[in-house]
Amino acid sequence: MMGQIRVGIGGWDFDPWRQSFYPAGLAKAKQLEYASRRLGAIEINATYYKLQKPELFAKWRDAVPEGFRFAVKGSRFCSNRARLGEGGEAVERFCGQGLAELGEKLGPILWQFMATKRFDPDDFGAFLALLPRAAGGVPLRHVVEPRHESFRTPQFVAQCRAAEVGIVFADADDHPCIADISGDVVYARLQRAREEEATGYAADAIGRWAKTARAWAAGESPAGFAYCADPAPVRPREAYIFFISGAKARNPAAAMALIERL
Length: 262
What we know:
Blueprint: E1 5-10, H1 17-20, H2 31-36, E2 41-44, H3 54-63, E3 69-73, H4 76-79, H5 88-95, E4 106-112, H6 121-130, E5 134-135, E6 138-139, E7 142-145, H7 154-163, E8 166-171, E9 185-190, H8 203-217, E10 238-243, H9 251-261
Parallel strand pairs: 1-2, 1-10, 2-3, 3-4, 4-7, 7-8, 8-9, 9-10
Antiparallel strand pairs: 5-6
């Protein structure tokens, strides 16, 4: 048994993609429609900087096909603060801004912390307690992306598992990679695309990520990664694989190559 695997990119409006991904002459207003028919998911980054209107979420929802998912990046006003547990009003505003308009096309909410944010078990636990399970009748699922080595501890994993919150697998040079599975969602952000590769990653690397994605979707903890705690119970999980940063111009090609391999 395997859960659904969705592969995508961050955003859909990036000028170099007009030469490498989008057809010549495609209107910007049609970019989301085009991208969503070639990818399984897109991570919305604009929500990290400011709240969006419900009408805009509805417009995005109507532009994409059934089965497509939007991951939504949580507000910096919630995750970039000295005391995470004091951000209750900000979390409430964020989750109430209109996310429910996405309906079944809403994927996980990504909460990304600053690289200077250290692990404080009490404060982090208070933050987890703030995360709502639904908004406007639509279920909410959350994943967290710590960027400080102090989070590489069994206690962090245990807290996430108790709260049924996923831990982001960040494959990057400058942030810790915590591979432990937590919650119903595996969320990977792959950040090593290279400009010299037409698909961002060499064919053998794409093959390895396809194998890893299948293992995650089956609920397995693949060998070869650094874990902080005992393996999670094996059961099907939804897997999101995003190609982010690196040689960004190559990310759509990398995503489509992985989709083809899968």
